[in-house]
Design goal:
Elements (H helix, E strand, L loop, with lengths): L23 H18 L3 H7 L6 H7 L8 E2 L2 E2 L3 H14 L1 H21 L2 H12 L5 E4 L15 E5 L2 E12 L6 E8 L2 E8 L5 E5 L11 E11 L4 E6 L2 H35 L1 E2 L2 E2 L4 H29 L5 H26 L10 H11 L6 H13 L6
Length: 394
């Protein structure tokens, strides 16, 4: 016989009691990152957003906490579980998508390919310093005319004796202008290869992208490669074809599906507090039916999104997670977070468009997250192929 449903007061910030699904180590890590965000990101992030900057020194602080490449093992990496990594992404993005993007690009897009496809020498040279935040990485895949179809890239690599020579450009590269090393994907006569490119190599340059209205607390750049000459050992020996870069994107997408729940939570909490405090027509706007519906929809979406992320994280830790299931999480959670942010903005009214509150900043950021690491449309087609067996890509 099942237990009766008991009356009681639910926690509006954890309506389904999801906290009880976490073990003590997961809670400790989450709370540690949450405190770091409260102390080091939230006090200044509105200023970073307004000025379009991200302080490079944050890399070493994140490294000291073990947040960079945390889900990788060995070479100075923390070797956490997938769920622990996801929870850290949730808390970082509750601060700002730029902070989570920095950690994602460093760990999932720059360190992961070295760990997965690099030589032992490459691992020893780069990973410990990247884990410590002493070296910042970026990931050069997207091009101006090659976004959702990265296999059509024009950046090329040719052999010249024992060396490789790279020419081309990459666009929309997070951390590009502050990176010390770039993982660059280029085409040679045999297909797609990955290269470890120190950014002080002659012929390598960057141009930061300005006038962004999204992800402003993040450095986004163009990478330009003009006869960049690299030694033979710069190539990632284990990465051939598109499986290499696509596996890196799946790593980043996993962090995103957790991260955006944090952004949505920050918007919901701001809207809920505001609705209780803001009085119109002699009562708080939280007492109005239309406002309650908005708040309830936000709460339901956030709880659903965290359950999806946590379930997929447990699957990954069990070795059972498939790439299409990551697309499920990225697709639905980003869509949910953007809807929550927009609704929260409406609850705050005119105050919602100022940086005094976090909502417009998250809303603008999520427009980018909706597009990068696979657009909403691409993930829809990935899921369509998974359930029908038919590819819409070609």
């Amino acid at each position: 016989m099942s237990s009766p449903i008991t009356p009681g007061t639910t926690d509006p910030n954890d309506f389904l009691g999801i906290d009880a699904l976490l073990d003590p180590e997961e809670k400790l890590l989450r709370d540690t990152v949450r405190q770091f965000v409260a102390d080091r990101i939230l006090p200044d992030v509105a200023e970073w957003f307004e000025s379009g900057t991200f302080p490079k020194e944050m890399a070493k602080e994140m490294g000291a906490l073990g947040l960079l490449g945390m889900h990788l093992d060995g070479y100075g990496c923390a070797g956490t579980s997938a769920v622990q990594y996801g929870l850290a992404c949730t808390e970082l993005e509750a601060g700002d998508s730029g902070a989570r993007s920095f950690a994602s690009v460093q760990g999932s897009l720059s360190m992961f390919p070295i760990r997965a496809f690099g030589s032992e020498e490459q691992k020893q040279e780069w990973l410990p310093r990247m884990a410590a935040g002493e070296v910042i990485g970026c990931f050069g895949l997207t091009e101006a005319d090659s976004g959702s179809d990265p296999s059509s890239m024009r950046t090329n690599a040719r052999r010249d004796g024992d060396d490789w020579v790279l020419n081309g450009s990459k666009m929309w590269i997070t951390n590009g202008g502050i990176a010390d090393v770039a993982i660059v994907w280029a085409r040679d006569d045999d297909g797609i290869r990955g290269f470890v490119v120190p950014t002080d190599t002659p012929g390598f340059s960057t141009n930061d992208i300005h006038q962004k209205l999204s992800l402003r607390a993040s450095v986004t750049s163009e990478l330009v490669l003009s006869d960049v000459r690299l030694p033979a050992d710069a190539v990632l020996p284990g990465a051939e074809g598109m499986k290499g870069p696509l596996s890196c994107l799946n790593e980043a997408r996993f962090g995103i599906m957790f991260g955006v729940v944090g952004a949505a939570r920050a918007c919901y909490e701001a809207a809920l507090a505001y609705a209780k405090d803001r009085t119109q027509f002699d009562k708080p706007i939280a007492a109005f039916q239309l406002t309650q519906r908005k708040l309830v929809d936000m709460m339901v979406g956030i709880n659903r999104g965290m359950l999806v992320a946590l379930h997929l994280g447990r699957m990954r830790d069990a070795g059972a997670l498939q790439a299409a299931q990551v697309s499920f999480g990225k697709l639905d959670n980003v869509r949910m977070a953007l809807e929550v942010a927009r609704s929260a903005r409406s609850v705050l009214g005119a105050n919602g468009i100022t940086l005094e509150y976090p909502v417009i900043r998250h809303m603008n950021n999520l427009e980018s997250v909706f597009t990068y690491e696979g657009t909403n449309e691409i993930h829809t087609l990935i899921l369509g192929q998974a359930i029908t067996g038919e590819s819409a890509f070609s």
